[in-house]
Structure formats: structure tokens, C-alpha cells
Amino acid sequence: MDAGRTDLYFPRIMVLEDAAWTFRLLSVPRSTHAAKERFTDAPQWSSDLHLIHTVEGCGILHVGGERYESTPDNVLVVPPYRRCRWEKRGPGTWTMLNLHARLDEADGTALHEQSLLPISFTPIGLAAIHSRLALIQQQWSGSVVQRGIAASSALAIITSYLAAFGRAPTGVTPRDPQMRQLRERIRSQAGDKFDATTLAREVALSVSQCNRRFRATYKLSPKAYWQQCRFARAQTMLLSSSDSIKQVAEALGFSDIYYFSRWFSQHCQMPPTTFRRQHREM
Predict the structure, then answer these.
(1) Is the Cα dihedral 9, 12, 14, 17 positive or negative?
(2) Are 172 and 116 in contact (CB under 8 A)?
């Protein structure tokens, strides 16, 4: 295994019929925010699993019109592809550990995209979990062997949360192989124009059959999922590359940068230039 890798893959952690699950521990950052610190209003569109464990103080996660307190007594799950904003509450410091990971099916369906965990919950033995997370964070910056131990421990924490709510993936994972194929195809074509007829032909179904079965499997239409993937790719490109807004727009199939900015603003409530600047200031 390459010692320079920053993530660790565990294929076939869970097996559901013919579906392999792959786990990745991405990071376990610990952050402390001072008493006078203020957060910007930058939205946080998460495409990974973020489990927030507050060690000290209190933060508030705003999701749409709802607000959820993050305290040492609970765990918050940052919902994917939704506008979220953080706020620090009270005059003291706020310290939290973020268990940042992915648990994916063979077709790329992420565990957290299936809404298996509530946004806020209180697991048993949270103080002990905080101690385990502190050790995981130390191990994650160590050797390859230590990172492997850290990833295994992180996976155990996540699966214990699922078990506590009776929401293990074995009961809810989609089993329609054609829809899995269609979903993977849509993900790979997020930068292309949406073509319902061509997609349906690739899985030997009619457009109406695709729409009906995709909705039954994933709770949204193929086009809505394509838009979701397209926006996720747009935000990733804006935050992880130095490409200009025009280059990002062209890579996503937009011939007009102004139309791309309007489209992005409709999803994000701010233009791509503001989104990129505010996230880099955080």
C-alpha cells in the first residue's frame, strides 16, 4: 500500500446480495472556534458523510428554516446537497471533532444519501466515543498501519450508530440492477446534456419506465438526480481547482457563463464567485 495515501479503502466491508460496500475515512479534523469568532454565511453543500461531535461549547447548524444545536450531548449529521450554515452559540469556545467519511455501495450510492441517520441524535456512551475519536485522529496522522486501525474504529462507530436506529443498509439498499446501471451512467455524464431517451435506451427501457422505476428506487427522477450530480460536480470544481468560472462552466456543458451563474445561484442562493471566495475564507 502506498504510504503517501491520505485515505484507506476497505472493499466488501458489507455484502448485500451482489453489492459490495466500500468505506473511506477521509479525515477527522478537530477545530476550536474562539469566543469572539464569527462564521461567514457561506453555505456548506456536503457530498460526504460529516458526523459532528462537539467536545466543548455549542454550535448551531442551520438547515433551511430548521436549526439544530450541536452540544457534547448529541451528534449532528450534515445533510448532503442542502444549504447549511454554522453559527457559534454563547461566549465560550466551541470545539468539535468531525468524523468525515464515505460508505458507498458498488454503484456509488452513498450511505448518507439514503437518509439512514437522523440529523441529530444522542448515542449511548458518547463520552467514550469522544475519547475514541480523539485516538482515531492521532492514529490517522500516523503510519499506514495506524491509519488502518483508525479507519476500522471509525467504521465501527458509524455502524454502531446505524444499529442503534435499526437502519443497517441491508434493509433499504436498492436492488434494481438496471436502476443501479442508470444511476451510475447519470453520475458519469453529469457534465453532459441530459438525454432521457438515450439513457433509457442504454438500459433497454422506455423513458416512462425509467422515470417510474428510478423514482421507486431512489425517490427522485433521473433528471433531478442528474441536476444534483451536476451541481455537486460544480461545487467540487470551484473549491478544488484553480479553473476560472468560465472553464468550470464549459466543463459542465454551459456555453454561456452568465447562464451558468444564474443556474448556480438558483441552487446555492449565491453566484459561483461568491461561493468560492467565502469557502476559501473559512
Answers:
(1) positive
(2) yes
How confident is the chain (282 residues) per 10-residue block, as mean pLDDT?
36 42 85 77 70 93 89 91 78 90 73 77 94 94 88 90 74 66 84 89 92 85 87 81 90 90 85 79 46
Domain ranges within the chain, ordered by starting residue? 9-171, 177-281
Task: Please give the angle made by the CA atoms of 196, 224 and 221, to the nearest 5 degrees.
Answer: 65
Residues in the chain: 282
Structural domain 177-281, CATH architecture: Orthogonal Bundle (1.10)
User: What is 9-171's CATH number?
Assistant: 2.60.120.280
